[in-house]
Amino acid sequence: MPPVRDEALLLRRLPYGDTSLVCHFFTRRGGRIGMMAKGARRPNSSLRGTLQPGNLLEIVYYNKESRDLQLLKEADLQEDFRSADDRYARLLARGGICEILERSQPGEHPDEGLFASARDSLRRAADCPYPVNQIYWFLIFCLARGGYYLDLARCGDCGRELRSFGTRGALLDRRGGQLRCPDCRQRDGGAQGLECSPRLLRVLSFLHRSDPEEVGQREITPATRAELGEALDSLLKAHMEVGRSLRCLEEAAEIE
């Protein structure tokens, strides 16, 4: 059984026994994989300072299909994404991107584009003015990779552009990703979907259409973050098997 070498983001780690760790990685070529890091908590272990959540690593591991946990052999730090001003918002953004990957991605389902996007989002969160915005952008990107595309430019029924909705809200189809304008929604009183205020529509549209570098330059108020978090959590639960709500979305709404 030859060892496998790959790039990996460490999403989460748990103590196992007295000296070991169970690590959950998202790897470039293997997707999300759980591994046992034997002896990683020993004082003299070369893995002790390396296996930190959010780190980009080059790992070597033994893979056996019949095992639930693979065996980690080596891990070398490539990038740790920490910042000189590692304030709570940056820690939350780093942890949130890892939480989204762990909760939304099936095991051993590789996606090199998603891996690259997660790595780049972690880099942006390390130095942009508003790092929690990277959580929202990355979650929308994950939904798109899973086949759920937001169409926020116009009403999916009549074709009216979003900017003509005025001060009235709209419905967002949780399944199709299309908007239903106030007039079309009024004509079909039984329409179901996600209630979107004008404020939420503006922010969703900004996140959806903007370059990822631009996303971290604009402040989103706590009230809007709370509404945005609830909306994205609802969409995530409708399209991916995530179970309970994402903690990062709840905490992001509370940052002043």
Radius of gyration (Å): 20 Å
Q: Report the sheet with the most strands, covering strand number, pairing sense and barrel closure.
A: 5 strands, mixed, barrel
**In the CATH hierarchy, what is the superfamily of the largest domain?**
Recombination protein O, C-terminal domain
Instruction: Tell me the CATH architecture of the largest domain.
Output: Up-down Bundle
Q: Could you tell me the strand content as a percent range?
A: 15-25%
According to CATH, the fold-level topology of the largest domain is de novo design (two linked rop proteins)
Order of helices and strands: EEEEEHHHEEEHEHHHH
The 3D shape can be described as: elongated
Share of helix, binned:
25-40%
Description:
By secondary structure, the protein is of the alpha+beta class. The protein folds into two domains: 1-80, Nucleic acid-binding proteins (OB fold (Dihydrolipoamide Acetyltransferase, E2P), Beta Barrel), CATH 2.40.50; 84-256, Up-down Bundle (de novo design (two linked rop proteins)), CATH 1.20.1440.120. It contains eight helices and nine strands. The protein has helices spanning 88-104, 112-125, 133-145, 182-187, 198-209, 212-215, 222-239, 247-252, and strands at 4-16, 20-27, 31-37, 56-62, 70-79, 151-155, 170-172, 178-180, 194-196. The protein has a five-stranded mixed beta barrel with strand order 1-2-3-5-4. Strands 6-8-7-9 form a four-stranded mixed sheet. A hairpin with a 7-residue loop joins strand 4 and strand 5 (70-79). The protein is elongated.
